[in-house]
Please model this.
Amino acid sequence: MTATETAVPLLSIKAQNEGLADEIKAAVLRVLDSGAFILGPENRAFDAEFAAALGAKHCLGVDSGTSALELALEAVGVGPGDEVIVPSFTFIATATAVSVLGATPVFADVDEDTLTLDPRSVEKLITKKTKALVPVHLFGQPADMDALLALAKAKGLAVIEDCAQSHLAKYKGRATGTLGDAGAFSFYPTKNLGAAGDAGAIAVGGEALRDRILELRNCGRGIGSAYHHVRVGHNCRLDEIQAAVLRVKLRRLPEWTAARRRLAALYRERLAGLPLRLPPAGGGGTEPVFHLFTVRTERRDALAQHLKKHGIGCGVYYPLPVHLQPAYAALGGREGRLPVSERASREALSLPMFSELSEADAGRVCDAVRAFFK
Model:
């Protein structure tokens, strides 16, 4: 990096929030002035607006993406003695959401191109104990939902979509999160739609499932009741201030998504011909949203060092598949069992990707990558 050049970050929350500062402050003050801080009008408005953005029947705000997964799984009946099939190449919360319910995560491999749950691997793992599948739309790439839903239907399994990285991604015309029984979303600040702290939501289609989640997220209270508790529940409510912030940002999500897709197209054009595996552009009914632009190369670590030397941010997601994490050693995971997940963990490198990234800076990233391979 020359003395006149500035660094290119992997992502920049500040760049996004600076342009919305006045609106965000006004939204926060609106909540403070209202005195309604828990399950108030901001929650109700955000639930309706996010459901409309997805084309979902219902949306329920919760306090984090992890809680969204846990509540959705519990609502479909996952509990002690059950097995839930999850991909190994994902953030660990996909698996721990199963474990905290007393069930066992069963780790499946991922597809070589999309790095999402591989239906062929899933089919081999289904047993009489299997209760549900959790496809993860990793890096904003939709999973092969037709095949996974067909398997689930044939075996009587629930499908909970992990949409932590796939806000507004589509699969054959439908938004991710609206294809299975429920979709769990994260609004962690770095997500495509990020709050000013932890926040999440669950998209659901059925009224019975919606009502169970409403009860579970609010201490097991019966709907409309203050002190009549119909089940053992949790305190997983979306904070009113976070709901207000999310409402401001949700209005910009379509344009931010379009910007990510333009940057992904630029990357694909300028990195073509290099010994890199690039993420799919879409097609076949999928419309990814590029939460991350993740390339793969056997020289991943050397490329990362080269980029950092030239002031280019990059990140490794994820350096160790979940079946090999020490937290799950008791399940007997071993090297070589899930070859695509293990290979991806050695090869995957994410390049800068956020909607405010300029084409000039994206070009600098591409120049640095090309220079490495020369």
User: Anything to note?
Assistant: Residues 253-270 form the longest helix (18 residues). The longest strand covers residues 58-62.
